[in-house]
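Quick check before the chapter quiz. The format below is the same one you will see on the exam, so make sure you can read both the input and the output lines.
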Amino acid sequence: MASFQDQYGIRLSREAKTMRWGEFCDLLAGISPDTPLGRIVAIRAEDDPEVLKQFTPEQRRIRNRWRTKQAEQVSEQDLNVFLKTMQDAFAHMAGGGESG
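Here is the expected output.
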């Protein structure tokens, strides 16, 4: 990855055979937003409406693809649990206690 080369001077294709997983994770967690990977992560994670208004079409495409992919990974069970939780919360707010 170019970001590891840029920031750490490490070519992962060479280091992958000897680098431990924990070391890789530590380096990845410390990747700078000034690297290509860091910029992609920042685009994907951005939620500030004012910043989002300033996104270029390419930044929007990157963010939208990521959000779509994440949404597709939500299981039906997770969705059902979420919906039940929301239903119970609204019932509670309306004074109806828990729904059945």
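If your answer matched, good. The chain has one domain: 2-93.
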